[in-house]
Amino acid sequence: MSGVSRQQYATYTKLIRVMCSGTVDLAFVLRAFAKGSDGVFIGGCHLNDCHYNTHGNYHAVNMVSLCKKLMEHLGLNPERLRLESVSAGEGIRFAEIMNDFGKQVKELGPLGQSEGIDKNVLKLKLKAITQLTPYIRVVLNERLNVRFNSIEGYNQFYSSGEFRRLFQELIEDKFAVSQIMLLLREKPLSTGEISEILGLAPTEIARYLNGSANYGLVRYEENQKCFALVD
Q: For the chain, first and last CA: distance in Å?
């Protein structure tokens, strides 16, 4: 409880206790990583045994499954995010899970370090994906609103070719454009410079830039041979 009074700790514990896992928004998880958290743990009711009779735990499994795929796309180890079903009567099991997760995160090290991601690039990626959260939330509710009776069902879906197709169609391009817009907000850049920073092929960057130019978001500055945001 370092830095936290007993009264504050009791308040935080109470808040955690009454919070349904289904109310844990994707933005909460991404914000935690964006602020430097090395791991995020979510505990919820067992499937088919919702404490609040809302079945929000199914939504939590779905959200976490998608978030892990987003993390993989960012280059982060998805094991930094963990969801476990733990009932109020499983205190010993909860302690064991937390000890195990703490050990696991410690072995992974600081966020991005074991993944070999430059801290500035990681900051850019997390900011870009965080900006897309409202859109991704809509995708989750409308296009990826799946429900299965077991964790295995979710694992199979999120490992399927169907999900991969939907991810490419709905998220990948928008994430790349979000990163490019953030880079150009700092200064004009050439296709090659953006390609080097993001680790994407110049042809892909050119496609994103041309599309953004068609929408009036960026312009090509002939004298500098680079792209800039439209004022």
A: 49
DSSP-assigned states of every residue in 72-99: HHHT--GGGEEEEE--TT-HHHHHHHHH
Q: Classify burial at 66, counting beta carbons within 10 Å of its beta carbon; exposed 0-12, middle 13-18, buried 19 or more.
A: buried
Residue type for 38, please? Answer: D
pLDDT at 86: 84
- Domain 187-231: top CATH class: mainly alpha
Tens of pLDDT, residues 139-197: 999 999 999 989 999 999 999 999 999 999 999 999 999 999 999 999 999 999 999 99
Comparing CA positions, the residue from 215, 218, 216 lying closest to residue 180 is 218
Indicate the pTM of the whole model. Answer: 0.86
Cβ contact 4:12 at 8 Å: yes
Where do we find the tokens 């998608």? 66
